[in-house]
Structures are given as C-alpha cells and as structure tokens.
Amino acid sequence: PKQRYALQVSCSQAVSRKAQEGNAAALNRMGECYKRGTGVEQNETKAVEYFSAASQLGYSAAMQNLGVCLFNGHGIDKNSQLAMQYYRAAASRMLDSNLAREEYKELKQKSKTGDAEAQYKRGKFYDQGKAVAHNPPLAMDWYLASARQGHSDAMYALAGKYEDGKVVRQNLQESISWMMKAAKKGHLEAQNGLAVAYENGRGVEQDPKKALQWYEKAADLGSANAQTNLGYCHHFGKFGLRIDLVKAAEYYKAAAEPKLGNFGIAQYNYGYCLENGIGVDKNVKEAIKWYRRGAAQNNPHSKDALTRLGVPEIDEQAEQNKTAESVSNTNNGNGESGTPANNLHQEL
Fold it and tell me: FRET label pair with 91: which of 269, 271, 287, 334, CA 20 to 30 Å apart?
C-alpha cells in the first residue's frame, strides 16, 4: 500500500507540476495516469488531452498512446486512419532520435576542435533537448562560441535569446547588435527581423525607410517571411508605398510556393487574393487549393476559409489518386521506401 501511495503522489503532484511547465514526458505521464486512474480519477478524455499536448511537442511515446486511443475510441471518437498516422509518426520520431544520438556524438567531437558549424548545431541540440537534456544556458554558450567565429545562424540564435529574455536578461540593443551582424552576412530571417524592428521601433529608433529596405533585401533573396510582409505593405500602402494589388499578390505567391517551405500564412493570403480577385483573376477553385495547402500547415485562417466555403480540408479524390499511383509505382518496382519571436507574420 505504501508503494502504491508513493506512485499516486508522483502522478498527482511532481509530474503534474512538470506537465504544467510544458515538459513533454510529464504531459505523457499525466495522460497515462488519467487513462489508468493512477493517482487521479480515471478520465480518458483528459488522458487524450495530455497525450495530444505531448504529441505536439514531438514526444513519440505520446504519439503512440494517442494512436491507441484513436484506434480504440478511448476518450475520443474512433478514427483508425488518424491512429495509423500517429503510429507512423511515433515510429519515425523514434528513428530520428536514434539518428540524433549518433549525430550528437559526431558534433561533440567536432565542436571541441573549434568547428563553428558543429558548435552551432550542438547549441541547437541543447536548445531543443534533442539527444541530450534540454539546457538553454548551455545552448547559448555554444551559440556564442560559434557566433564569435562569424557563424550567421548562431548570431541569429543569440539575437533571439536576448530578445525573449528567457535565458538571459532581456536586452533589445544586444539583440539588434547580433541581428545586424547576421543580416550583414546575408542571413535572410535576420534581415526580415531587422525590418520588423525598424518598423516597430523595437530595440532601434523607428525608421519606415530602413524597414522597407531590409524587407526588400530579404524578399529579393527569397525570405518567405519578408515576401509576405512586403506583400502586405503593397496591399495596404504601408511606408508611403502606392497601393499595388498586383505586386502584393505576386509577393504572396512567391512566399507561398512549396519550395520556400510551405508558408501557411502566405498560402492563405494568396488564396484570399484568388478568392476575391485581388491583384489576380478571381478563381475560387484555385483559391481552395491554396487554402488546403495552408490548412496542411495548420494555418487557422486557411482552415476557417475552407469551413466558410463548405469544403473539406483534404481533397479526398486527389489523395486516392496519389495512393493509386504509389501502389502502381511499387508494383512496377519504382516505389521508394518509406527560432526568435521577431517575425511579423502579417495576415489579411
């Protein structure tokens, strides 16, 4: 009895505290407690909520648990198709974890020799808790070592740390200093970040002209963030620009192209232009395609647009065609086996 009581306390107090702090393992453990009724009153609906929260943080065990709940209809509507997606995601995540541990071993050796890229990546491992314990202060040490050697990604990472003030005392001037260094080295998101800073006067004196210059520089080099923001500027005539809906739509489309990372907000914006004939010929059918792409990136505006238009998020016929094509290719022997919070994502 004493041993069982100790387990109950760990579920209801210590684990609960860590779960409230966003610890993925603790969130998963709380889900297991509610599913089994260990230390808390059994509640499968709450269990699913905890498993979902941990899954969103990439915790493979929680993905597996959520898949089981979906497959059996425990605490959530039964959905075997979605369950299989979570099973596959869990398996993939576990494989990634094994690969990450091997990668970390290599990075550890290289970083000790002064390799700037390895130092930056090692910092990311500590920052994300990937293959090692989550340790933001140690991550910052490695970012700093790398940045001092001129690594632009490390500079940008430091800018974010000084801006959010979670690891060190917030220092917007220091943040801008590192952001500027990274931007001058051609770091696209640092350039966009500087534009946002100049637009809002955050860490620097507000300067619309400099904001526009940095947006244009980053957009020309392919930053989806900057292209979206610049599209917004032309759409609404910000910074003294003449309203140019054609140019706005062009920037939204450039940012929305899948090759640039499936940028959900831009996909919604471009879909909105197509739906309403803003800067392009009106084409609701094509708008739905872009809304679906945005919805696939979990963009809430895209999902709302699809709901408003009364169409599902997934084109079932297209998915069936993909599956048929995949099976055909397999039968023919051709199948394949299976940062800083300073980006202003402007929306319509």
Answer: 334
Q: Are 96 and 130 in contact (CB under 8 A)?
A: no
Sign of the Cα pseudo-torsion (24, 30, 35, 38, in order): positive
* 113 to 22, 124, 125, 132, 145: CA distances (angstroms): 35, 18, 18, 20, 12
Cα distance between residue 48 and residue 72, in whole Å: 12
- The tens-digit pLDDT sequence of the chain (348 residues) is 333 333 333 455 667 778 888 888 889 889 998 998 888 889 999 999 999 998 988 888 899 899 999 988 999 998 988 988 988 888 877 666 777 788 888 999 999 999 999 999 999 999 988 888 889 999 999 999 999 999 999 999 999 999 999 999 999 999 999 999 999 999 999 999 999 999 999 999 999 999 999 999 999 998 999 999 999 999 999 999 999 999 999 999 999 986 555 689 999 999 999 999 999 999 999 999 999 999 988 899 999 999 999 999 988 666 555 444 444 443 444 333 333 334 434 655
Reduced to 3 states (helix: H, G, I; strand: E, B; else coil), residue 42 is coil
User: What tokens were used for 149?
Assistant: 């050697």
Q: What is the pTM of this model?
A: 0.65
Helix or strand holding residue 153 (H, E)? helix 152-164
CA 147 to chain centre: 24
Task: Please report, for residues 271, 307, 313, the alpha-carbon distance to residue 316 in angstroms, rounded to integers and kept in the order given.
Answer: 20, 16, 9
Token pair 């979206």: residue: 228
Reference 189, options 116, 113, 96, 260; nearest CA is: 260
